[in-house]
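TA notes, week 10

Several of you asked for a full example with nothing omitted. So below is the full record: structure tokens for the whole chain, then the designed sequence directly under it. When grading your own attempts, check the secondary structure regions first.
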């Protein structure tokens, strides 16, 4: 199954006044909106990740990236806060479901199976307390259960969460198409090496326009199939008439 994969397009990363703003991230917002619309239009499921932090003692081990635990980052994407919610541009789906990373690390198999059945109308996001979505064990199980083999990837930040998601998915045999004008990195140096590494591991880089053009082609193919069916019906009617 093919998916569109949305990495951490949340207010704290995407907005100038966000708690952990990725420089110039707002530039990619129009493309993020188009890609989201495209996925809905061609009925390709939207899957992705969201950062969700708690800052409590029980989550400490998982949140060592936070300054409060001597890590490099200030508090960001705190659960329930505006900064943690997704930006408008990627929030266009009919409904959304979030799969937490439980403290006991248990994978909610039944919940995942139900979510996979509803993927076409309900976007599915995996919560994480670190930059790597694979730290939430449910994600790997999901990829296997849903038989994911292709992912169109976009979001932030190229040199952290995007890189980890792409390398991880490539490792699981999933072909990643990274939308180069719908990602943003924190620094140019680490972004450059992240792009190289993704390429090396088999990811392909595409432009948003190419994905959207693919959509056009797909809808024309749909139209053709519809018209051919219509024509067959008319042919049958003519034959019946002649008999
Ligand atoms: Zn974080």
């Amino acid at each position: 199954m093919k998916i569109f994969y949305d990495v951490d397009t949340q207010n704290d990363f995407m907005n100038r006044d966000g708690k952990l703003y990725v420089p110039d991230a707002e530039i990619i917002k129009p493309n993020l909106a188009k890609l989201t619309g495209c996925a809905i239009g061609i009925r390709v499921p939207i899957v992705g990740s969201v950062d969700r932090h708690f800052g409590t003692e029980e989550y400490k081990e998982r949140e060592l990236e936070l300054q409060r635990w001597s890590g490099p980052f200030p508090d960001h994407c705190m659960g329930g806060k505006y900064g943690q919610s997704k930006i408008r541009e990627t929030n266009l789906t009919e409904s959304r479901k979030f799969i937490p990373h439980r403290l006991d690390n248990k994978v909610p198999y039944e919940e995942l199976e139900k979510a996979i059945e509803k993927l076409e109308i309900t976007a599915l996001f995996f919560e994480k307390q670190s930059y790597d979505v694979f730290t939430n064990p449910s994600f790997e199980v999901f990829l296997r259960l849903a038989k994911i083999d292709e992912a169109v990837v976009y979001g932030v930040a190229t040199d952290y969460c995007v890189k980890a998601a792409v390398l991880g998915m490539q490792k699981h045999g999933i072909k990643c198409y990274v939308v180069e004008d719908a990602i943003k990195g924190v620094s140019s140096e680490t972004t450059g090496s992240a792009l190289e590494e993704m390429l090396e591991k088999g990811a392909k880089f595409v432009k948003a326009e190419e994905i959207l053009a693919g959509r056009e082609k797909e809808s024309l193919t749909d139209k053709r199939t519809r018209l051919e069916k219509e024509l067959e019906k008319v042919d049958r009617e003519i034959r019946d008439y002649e008999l």
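The beta strands are 2-7, 46-51, 95-99, 122-128, 150-156, 175-184, 204-206. Use that as a sanity check on your answer.
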